[in-house]
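> tool_call: predict_assembly(chains=two)
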Amino acid sequence: MAEPILNISNLKKYYEIKQGLLAFRAQPIFVKAVDDVTFTINKGEIYGLVGESGCGKTTTGRCIARLEDPTDGSILFRDKDIAKIPKKELRGFRKNVQMIFQDPYESLNPRFTVFQAVADPLTVHAREQSLEERLDAVVGALEDAGLKNPQDLLGRFPHELSGGQRQRVAIARALVVDPKFIVADEPVSMLDVSIRAGVMNLMLDIKEKFQIAYLFVTHDVAIARYMSDNLGVMYLGNIVESAETDQLINNPTHPYTRALLSAVPIPDPDYEWVDVPIKGDIPSPINLPKGCRFHPRCVWAKDICKETSPETVEVARGHFVKCHFASEMYGNEEPPPEVPEFDSGDEAEHDAG
Amino acid sequence: MALLEVKDLTLHFKVNEGWVYAVEDVNFTLESGETLGLVGESGCGKTTLGYGISQLLPDNAHVKAGRVIFKGQDILTPSVKKNGTLDAYRPEIRKLRWKEISMIFQGAMNAFNPVQKVGDQIVEAIRTHEKITAQEAEDRVAELYKLVGIPKDRIDNYPHEYSGGMRQRAMIAMALVHNPSLIIADEPTTALDVIMQRRILTEIENIQKKFSMAMIIITHDVSVVANVADKIAVMYAGRIMEYGDVMDVFKRPANPYTKALFGGFPNLKGERKRLASIPGNPPSLVEPPSGCRFHPRCKYAKEICKKEKPPVMTLPSGQLSLCHFAAEVQSGGGA
């Protein structure tokens, strides 16, 4: 039933930092933004990638859209590895894979009218089209993006549109070339609450109608839950846990996922907050901790976590967890161990006062 | 006696196109130790209202009506100049500001002076109001840092050396220097990741309880209000649409806008159901709609809503709602 459209395996993206005058003599330093990420996106499904800022979720999205060249790994799209093919040969792939960005105030050229913005991809991917055909395609895409009276909008500039309309134009621009897959990077986080629900519903409807798959990148777990069929939780360049959305939300297993989910505010005044079982702050991605990357913040951490990086384990069908104690943690609802005050991470150590 | 009473407050901005009707006819009270959550979308006037209370508005702000009564004294009326603008430098209000009413600003990233050490900036805030030695002030900073959980050795750092969460904590420490009776927190956690947001909110709550301070928390995030506030005021296009105890308003909303706002919020718990979206866009405050400002987007709207500004209705459950059909909306019928 679930037919994979995109297979991402062992994707890596390292950035080299050059610093100082004598940089050429020093050992190169790398920021491992994405480190060994493997997942599959199915046709007509939404894969939600959640995590805090700096976890590598955006970079993963940009690598998949080939806006960044991956350092290593493969991205199989229709049995073709597009991770390595040169930029020149990407045109066919680009027609199938489009991107929606976070800020519609910046992703639309202020000097392009709505028609120019939405028709722009067609000038590359459908050169043979006549102007009438192009006009039809643009109006059709604007309608698909839920904009009423698209004819009236064609000559307008982005500054004449509201935030919600702008994001819908950006969605129309992605839809106009009839893509199979869309990378949406925080597409609703700049929008107001009353507009946001409409744009999210639109994206869900588009998924159903055109069987388009999405990679939906967001920091907001509640939104990710609403949008996604499958979820992946990222921490410092790794996917630490992934599963079908409800399975993951109901059975968070990785210590980081548990901390992340317990920190999300619930819009219900009766809801009792539980303490977030996590220590300290996110370490710098330049000096990654040895062993499990989460161990300095993990309240369950044991000695092995400091030494060896854990394998990814399948704890239930399709539910993967990158933790040494994944099987023990799965379904275990015992409260997290108390953190001794003297061992409460770098910064939190001072919380004790 | 209530700590803070805002009565019929109306604040407009003069701009080239005319007037921006940013805050209209706002009424609420706040007891000491209480938290009011002020929610609304961008441009609804919630920040203007918050800054209006501490009189930190730009020069083109005009007070059209209203009083702000703090500890039994009207602090607003004496500050209003003949042309309606505010005298931000009135000595009485300067004495009050930060000592009695302090603020946690939106985006702690930019709230600190980047070329001055964070500790020095806090010391300055202390010594402006109190004649104590620099050493005493520094000791107070160290105490406050302990309270908000920043290591003492970071006092002599510059703002860029702090992480986002630390800067926000330093901002909170600075707001606390004089043990104020009221803190106005403008989107205190919006720029932070959820884990840090949760820590900061817990910290604010603990500190607030410890010193029984009142707080106004300005945010667009309904779920934050559900978690920290006692009372909620929902603002739309410059007006408070619904006001009451958090429990009452969340359990039985009596205003179409409140209902729509809650309905558009995804939840991590409970069943996954389709969110309801509100048609249209928030109005421009230069030319707000006639009658009820929400009527063009309201599914309950009738003829009267276009013509007449709705009266403030008091519901049996206790909350106030600015809607002609508040009772019907609350019981779910009337559409």
